[in-house]
């Protein structure tokens, strides 16, 4: 049977603290009543608490003093989802979305969210962005590179004019086009994911 035996100064300190109506008041009452000779079951009945609760707080005070009566904040939940997201990103970001059945040539945050969703992992955009940042991935344009066999500006212009001539002479019944499509005589610089501080060269196409 656990029981508290307080010295006079200790009892006065607890009584004064209890009267301030602090968050520890009820727990201090357990200690004072135990010191007065009440049993655990009697204290439990008085406060309508479980005997295990009373016994636990009395033991906490006996072992740790007033600090033992303070509530301890539970440790935060481990970032299981965050770590899992990071692991998945590390494996998928170096591959093309086409390997996973997508039509897109490169990964976007929205596409990543869809990727996780199809695998039963519902994540928010902020979660993905934080995971990318923690792993050092940044989204920027590739360094400009021009393959040796790239046609010159004049050659590109000549080819475009030829295509226009073919379309005009054949007079097609229907012409299909993609909104915002355009011709350019300069190299098209793509964006992609790469490690912070490392500049990737655009792959030759």
Concise account of the structure shown:
The chain is mainly α and 205 residues long. The protein folds into three domains: 8-69, no CATH class; 80-139 and 190-195; 143-171 and 183-188, no CATH class.
How is this fold's topology laid out?
Blueprint: H1 8-19, H2 25-35, H3 40-47, H4 51-64, H5 80-92, H6 109-117, H7 125-134, E1 137-141, H8 153-170, E2 191-195
Antiparallel strand pairs: 1-2
What does this structure look like?
The protein has 205 residues and is mainly alpha-helical. It has three domains: 8-69, no CATH class; 80-139 and 190-195; 143-171 and 183-188, no CATH class. The protein is 46% helix and 5% strand. The protein has eight helices and two strands; from the N terminus they run H-H-H-H-H-H-H-E-H-E. It has helices at residues 8-19, 25-35, 40-47, 51-64, 80-92, 109-117, 125-134, 153-170; strands at residues 137-141, 191-195. It has a two-stranded antiparallel ribbon. Helix 2 crosses helix 4 and helix 5 crosses helix 7. The model has no long low-confidence stretch (mean pLDDT 78).
């Amino acid at each position: 049977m656990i029981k508290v035996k307080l010295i006079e100064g200790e009892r006065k300190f607890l009584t004064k603290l209890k009267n301030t109506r602090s968050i520890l008041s009820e727990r201090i009452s357990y200690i004072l009543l135990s010191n007065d000779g009440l049993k655990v079951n009697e204290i439990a009945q008085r406060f309508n608490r479980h005997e295990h609760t009373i016994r636990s707080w009395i033991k906490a005070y006996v072992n740790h003093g007033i600090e033992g009566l303070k509530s301890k904040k539970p440790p935060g939940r481990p970032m299981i989802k965050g770590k899992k997201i990071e692991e998945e990103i590390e494996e998928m970001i170096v591959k093309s979305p086409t390997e996973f059945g997508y039509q897109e040539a490169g990964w976007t945050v929205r596409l990543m969210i869809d990727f996780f969703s199809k695998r039963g992992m519902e994540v928010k955009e902020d979660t993905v962005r934080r995971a990318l940042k923690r792993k050092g991935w940044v989204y920027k344009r590739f360094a400009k590179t021009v393959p040796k066999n790239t046609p010159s500006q004049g050659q590109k212009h000549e080819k475009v004019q030829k295509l226009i001539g073919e379309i005009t002479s054949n007079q097609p019944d229907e012409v299909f086009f993609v909104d915002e499509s355009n011709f350019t005589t300069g190299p098209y610089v793509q964006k992609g994911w790469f490690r912070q501080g490392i500049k990737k060269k655009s792959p030759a196409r």
